[in-house]
Amino acid sequence: GAGVSQSPRYKVAKRGQDVALRCDPISGHVSLFWYQQALGQGPEFLTYFQNEAQLDKSGLPSDRFFAERPEGSVSTLKIQRTQQEDSAVYLCASSPTRGFHNEQFFGPGTRLTVL
Amino acid sequence: QQQVKQSPQSLIVQKGGISIINCAYENTAFDYFPWYQQFPGKGPALLIAIRPDVSEKKEGRFTISFNKSAKQFSLHIMDSQPGDSATYFCAAFNQAGTALIFGKGTTLSVSS
After folding, report:
1. Among A21, B45, B46, B54, whose CB has the most other CB atoms within 10 angstroms?
2. Among residues B8, B47, B29, which one has the least CA distance to residue B97?
3. Rounded to 5 degrees, what angle do the CA atoms A16, A17, A23 make?
4. Residue B63 clears pLDDT 60, i.e. is over it
5. What is the DSSP letter of B27?
6. pLDDT tens across A10-69, in order?
7. Left if phi > 0, otherwise alpha if psi is -120 to 50, otherwise beta: which for A40?
């Protein structure tokens, strides 16, 4: 079956622009995660959804970052007024259940470059 | 404050050799430790995972050794192959057991 897909794969934005990054999780997966991976670093947690409920947004670096999953499937990460330090790969992951310690299946990521 | 520390940053191993990557953590509330493998342009993929009440776990050529008292664990790749060349991340689940906390990664290059 299809894995987690993300679009666009690459995004170039001018500083100050708003961007929207899309994640299509594996069909039926309850949990969805967003991570930010800076160049040469490990992924860092941004936010977590269980179905349509955003249960943890403690990793969002500022109020310019906003995520939603209105119908409990597709999710969008929005970054307003982008800044150069937002340049990174944004990874989406999904997990089949709401339990603890479940395997997270990652998408290929969206590489965001802010000029 | 880095909650999961990983070393070395990069590693070069000859084909057939043993690759060893080390990780350490501070938070004793962490109780599940997965390792992820990432190829260029791809997302991380789960390789193997261990709980701290187990001292060793082996899956094929991959072995995790865990030292709970030292709060350290390591990944051993036996008979390393060029196809193992990738970036490896150790991780821990946060206290809620949901989000992953990753180390900075180790880039492994296996020469043929």
Report:
1. A21
2. B29
3. 130
4. yes
5. -
6. 999 999 999 999 999 999 999 999 999 999 999 999 999 999 999 999 999 999 999 999
7. left
The partner residue sitting opposite B97, judged by closest CB among A59, A91, A101, is: A101
A111: exposed, middle or buried (Cβ count in 10 Å: 0-12, 13-18, 19+): middle
The torsion angles phi and psi of A86, rounded to 5 degrees, stand at -80, -10
* Contact check, Cβ <8 Å, B94/A4: no
Tell me the average pLDDT across A61-88. 97
Collect all residues with Cβ–Cβ distance below 8 Å to B2 and sequence separation of at least 6: B103, B104
Residue A72 tokens, joined:
């409990």
The pLDDT tens digits of the residues spanning B13-29 come to: 999 999 999 999 999 88
Cβ distance B89 to A107 less than 8 Å, yes or no, reads no
